[in-house]
Structure formats: C-alpha cells, structure tokens
Design goal:
The protein is mostly helical. It has helices at residues 14-39, 51-80, 87-111.
C-alpha cells in the first residue's frame, strides 16, 4: 500500500501548508519592516534601494522559491503513482498544488513592490 505520512503529496496537511508558510512570511515581513523603520539605522538611505528592501526581496524570493518547489515536488511525486490514487487523494493533490501556486503568486504580489517603494515613509 502507499505511504500515508505527513510528507506524502496527498496528505490533507498539504492543503494548509503552503498558505501557512505564506501567512508566516507575511507576518515576519511586516513586523520586520516596522521594526526596521522604527529603529532607523544610521545608514538607512531614502529611496527604493535600501538594506531593508534587499533583505525583504531576498526573503520574498526564498519563500516564493520554497512554495514553488513544494508545488512542483508534490505534483511530480503524485504523478508517479497517479493511477493508484483514489479520487479523494487526486483532489487533495490538485488542490494543494493550486494553493501552493496561489501562495507563491501572492508572495510575489506583496513582496515585489519593495523593489520600487521606499520601506519607511
């Protein structure tokens, strides 16, 4: 029989994992920007190319990469055993991959303005 661990692509935890990662990213980003703007380090220049923006973009790209990797990895693992999966397991795989892709897209949509906007107004 097939594995049914937390890491399997058809485990129900996959439905909330991607959006949970996005939610944690969202909280860390906004808390980090708030703290960084409150501290106002001496070298923090105004404009869009600041150390805060660079850290924000690096963390955004890492999070987006993780979400895309999860979607790709789960889809590939499920496709290898697709015929053996039940309709419910197939639904979970499809929906979890779609939710991971949505989380990646939303991560980019929220994080990319950091390229052009100053972090502290």
């Amino acid at each position: 029989m097939q594995e049914y661990s937390l890491r399997s692509p058809y485990h129900p935890v996959q439905l909330v994992l991607g959006l949970s990662i996005w939610a944690v990213w969202f909280v860390i980003i906004y808390a980090g920007v708030s703290v960084a703007c409150e501290q106002r380090p001496g070298g923090l220049q105004q404009g869009s190319l600041t150390s805060v923006n660079l850290v924000l973009m690096a963390f955004t790209m890492l999070t987006c990469g993780l979400l895309l990797f999860m979607a790709h990895h789960n889809w590939r693992r499920a496709r290898r055993m697709w015929r053996a999966l039940s309709p419910t397991q197939r639904f979970i795989v499809r929906l979890s991959v779609a939710l991971d892709l949505v989380a990646a897209l939303v991560t980019l949509a929220v994080g990319l303005p950091a390229v052009v906007l100053p972090p502290c107004l």
